[in-house]
Amino acid sequence: MKRIFRLFPVFLLLSGTSCQTRIPVEEVLLPRPMQIERQRGNLPLKEPLQLSIEAPDTTVARLRHSLPACGLPLDADLRPVHSATPPRPTDNRPTLRLRIADDARLPASEEGYRLTISRRGIELSARGEAGLFYGFQTLRQLHDRYGDRLPALEITDAPRFAYRGLHLDVSRHFFDAEFVKKQLRMMAALKLNRFHWHLTDGAGWRLAIDRYPELTERAAWRQGATWQAWRDGGQRYSRRGDPQASGGYYTKEEIREVVACADSLHITIIPEIEFPSHSEEVLAVYPALSCSGRPGTTGDFCIGSEATFEFLENVLTEVLELFPSAMIHIGGDEAAKTGWATCPKCRERMRREGLTSTDELQSYAIRRIGRFLAEHGRRMIGWDEILDGGLAPGAVVMSWRGEEGGRKAAAAGHDVVMTPGSHCYLDGYQDNPTTEPQAFSGYLPLRKVYAYDPAPASMPGRERVLGVQANLWTEYIPTPEQAEYMLYPRLFALAEVAWSTPEGKDYADFHRRALWLTERARAAGYRTFDLAHEQGERLESLAETDHLARGCRVDYAAPWSEQYAAGGDGALTDGVRGSWSYGTRWQGFLACDVDVTLDLGEIRPLREVTADFIQWYSAWIWLPRRVEISVSDDGQEFRPLATLTNDYPEEAERPAYRAFGWQGSDRGRYIRYRALRNGRPGGWLFTDEIIVR
Ligand SMILES: [Zn+2]
Fold it and tell me: Which class does domain 273-394 fall in?
């Protein structure tokens, strides 16, 4: 580990901002510290600070390397005053005093710290090197905001959670080692400390394994520069050096460099090797490891075959050499399991082991790998499917399908990392989906990430929650610019959820700090989302809509779906409109037309009948093919008002929100609104309100 220990990784180029002492210090720091006490006066940084370090020799050596990069004016002679020798009394210059101490006034956590700034100088104390490191991140933000006139204060700080993570999928699109290091530097500035590296998946293997060269000769390369092009082209793989080949992988040298960089930033890298599914790329080049023995048939390994375990253990042996992390992620999610039920080898395994279902077969595979890792002094972590069919004690569960898996695992005595799709999947839209770049599904604005609490007081077993993690899946993220755009500022919110206590949470206050940090991140070369120009939630959903049919009875010729009831029979006339997210107040109709009749109670003059629909390709929700609106006085005989057709392309993956309506002059009591589906099998129609004026 020869890399220089860098304390102030991100905002190195940003010092020298103008004096800003009037800004309250509470409005500066992100994540918000545990306790801030502002005191009178300032520390002008006009002359170099005298340095004193009280710490073990190894820490002193690392600090000496890094201090020149800290941005603060320091004595040119960086020989630290070792041990508790105070600065020479004749010298009135301010000091920078760094201490590692077992001091009762310090937070119990090794990651906690106490930072005091006064006219006499700066004192930073912690129980461990990580605490000093995080104290420096705080000092760096203060220096960045206040320039060379630091406000006098005392900060006592420690993290809420020990696990504060970011996940990056480098399989769907490959991101090089420099990009990863750049994000690690931002993570450190945000006091995040776990990087979950999703190194393997069907769209490409990304890690050199000496024993299995085909993984990087072929499985790391595909036909199709983007994930979408690859998917639409039949998911074909390629070969390194082929002119059509797209992809890449990390050499072992690069991995060691990234691991060393992370180590210097107090970040642990948790590698993920997907098993027993999401492994199409492995089975394309080593088809003997699948049940069928033929390439291109499945993403599941054959669990009946000993060769599968031999392969995985050989791979993991090389992985363990590269990554010192105590936890190793083995995936475990979304196995189809269909091949296992009919495979003679899998059936034989089930018979021998007394397993009665394919869930139990998966559990067998997971336990076996968990044992292998334990024998090598490591701990297994996996997605919440590893609970299916029973899980070995000691395994850590990452709850992604909502929080249910995490709650179940915690109740069963497992440690848990919370990363539910609803709040932690940063691949969803962060603003108006009709104007944002193509993303995966869902609407996850900054406000919603910030609102998340991974371990609320009401949660049984909450002490089992190690922490929280943001995930960046990259199906729709083909470039490094786009990845940063999706990460920031939402990762700022996740960092505060992970570090700060939920008491005193205030979005308006956070938003001010996030705006500032976004601006600084942009100045430092991160291509963030433009938070200053966020459009926000769909306007229609913010206030109720009043209209003639509000509260009127609705008869359904075909039923709404229980899954997206949005309030049931009254949903289409309750005045409440859907938000950008189709999961809220939109009523869903599965594999049928919308065919409803409204009763206005008496014959009324009419000038408008309209309803909004949405199209969300990735969720298989479509705009109607045609809409027919008709009116009646008696509910028996209807006369047409309008027939409307849809001109938005079915294959358009960008979400669309469209009104289908009639305007004119007429009268009537009953209004029939029919929206005809486009006929795609299993397709949905979603609408939120039939508005009559
Ligand atoms: Zn099999």
Answer: alpha beta
